[in-house]
Amino acid sequence: MPVSDYQMVKAWDAVLKLSKVERGQKVTILCGPHTHPQTLQTATIAAQAAGAVVTRIDLQPINAEKATSRDLMNYLGETPLTNNPVALAAMKNSDIVLDLMLLLFSPEQMEILESGTKILLAVEPPEVLVRAVPTEADRERVLAASRLLKSAKRMHVTSPAGTDVTFKLGEFPTISEYGFCEEPGRWDHWPSGFLFTFANEGGSDGTIVIDRGDILLPQKNYVSDKITMHLREGFVRSIEGDVDAALLREFMEAYNDPEAYAIAHIGWGMQPRCYWHTLSLVDREATSGQDARAFEGNFLFSLGPNNEAGGPRTTPCHLDIPLRNCTVKLDDVVVVRDGKVIDEAFR
Ligand SMILES: [Fe+2]
């Protein structure tokens, strides 16, 4: 169902209040040619209604010659902000940037956050944004789980499909995403509702089986046959299977970058208003697949960069892969059993 401008303004109003946007603050809205016009218009109205000083920055896309699809995360690293000191200065002088363009995994984003500016990414279609407006309860639940993840030394993941993989933990911070930015220098993504960390360098070993029906991002499709990945010392060493495995291998080989095969973030979804099935209902080009990343009880792992958590890896190849029906254990505590979040584990 489409959503009305009124519903979108109300949704933005809730998100801006949770992000502590107040009268007189500087709100910068970052957009590009692909930004959804309803999202842009209603963000502007809600920020003005909050009494903010609103500035729009409209930047042109880059990387067209390197990317293999229109997906916003198909090629990471350089962004339209690279070598643009005018836009960079404006954002560093803002209280919050509403990123309707997608400025992810870039040095410029780190620089903006370090200046104290908050950044809230919102690139899903209006219908998804309205369905999954964040709440304070989302934040409290994700933070409760993150306290347990922060103290864990080992994550063990298994599934009936054949996944049996171990990650050593402790070298990297835990990152919680719940869809708003209440503190200076915070980055978040609306909608969200999940948490993750990164395995220690060289500390991922075992087998991951991507089962039929699991989702690949940025491909944004459901795999139709099993893909088996063998991991040793932090890297995927083989990708086996039928056509889906061959497609994945060629996608990754096209970047010609050995770092693409590194295990990146690992965690689990906790957002009950996001769903595994919704990718089958929407235009693949209209979504970045945030439902798939956030749906309750997934085990979400990724391949590629770890600079988001302060690591050295900046490869442009980045895959997010949410698996269903997994059991996730932190040290001796089960936090997800057969794809269901166990809240008692971290309450
Ligand atoms: Fe990711």
UniProtKB/TrEMBL annotation:
InterPro entries in the cross-refs: M29_Exopeptidase (IPR052170), NicX (IPR058739)
Keywords of this entry: Dioxygenase, Metal-binding, Oxidoreductase
GO MF, any single term: metal ion binding
Entry protein name: 2,5-dihydroxypyridine 5,6-dioxygenase
